[in-house]
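Workshop exercise sheet. Pairs work together: one partner reads the sequence aloud, the other fills in the structure field after running the prediction. Swap roles for the next sheet.
Pair: D.N. / O.F.
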Amino acid sequence: MTDLTPTPERPGLHVVKHSEDDPATASAVCRCGASATANGDAQVALLVQGWTANHGPTHARGARK
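Structure field:
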């Protein structure tokens, strides 16, 4: 399986939850250089919300202006 963990060369958001009983984990790296990791369902949800609001596609749109 390919490693989907984001890097500065391959920015993005990666979330893993192997089963309903396992805690989620996530990592994110943005083109702007910001990065974050999270462990646990609640923390991963917050990371995804922050990424969606401030980085990823939203951040890229703002950078093109």
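Discussion prompt: Helices lie at 41-54, 56-63. What would you look at next?
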